[in-house]
Known about the structure:
This protein is of the alpha/beta class. It has ten helices and six strands; from the N terminus they run βαβαβαβαβαβααααα. Helices cover 52% and strands 14% of the residues. The chain has a six-stranded parallel sheet, with helices on both faces. Helix 2 packs parallel to helix 3 (64-74) and helix 6 packs across helix 9 (178-192). Residues 143-208 form the HTH luxR-type domain.
Amino acid sequence: MTTLRLVVVDDHPVVRDGLRGMLGTQPDFEIVGEAAGGAEALTVVEAVRPDVVLTDLRLPEPSGGALIRLLLERVPEVRVLVLTTHDTDADVLPAVEAGAIGYLLKDAPREELFRAVRAAARGETVLSPSVAAVLLSRVRPPKAPPSRRLSAREIEILALVARGRTNREVASALHISEATVKTHLLHIYAKLEVPDRAAAVDAAHRRGLL
């Protein structure tokens, strides 16, 4: 079993303690560092080079998108998973644009958090439903009625995901770019109101789409 090395970044000691205790229940997780602010996070992450950084957005500077961008500049292989209470455009968009692999809210169930950490380590995008809705609203034409019906292409992509294909393998099979696959997955998550690919496959099976 591969052990995932994690760093937790939050300016509240109680939150860090809670996350450390919760994540520590998983045999494949190892907390290798923590930080209370952006500057400390940069130092810790550069020193220990974890697989995944779980970070709040509003921290002693640098914070938000600026912190995410700096983390990825200094340790390009790290995956940054946002874990916060904020899901407004002003919070979500800069974080995603800066390169966050996922964005969860702190009220997410613990199993969802565990799944998100593992997915992030694999390079898969994970979003809370409300966050997916924010992103979808940015690409949907103004005043367009929301549609919850998956397109033929989205079902095609989801069927490949259900067979265990990675984003890269899906892109290759359908002769499209990996970025296009990720965009379709974001739309799927928003339409099905799910946070990640595993939940999307489950929801699609329950609705008879696959």
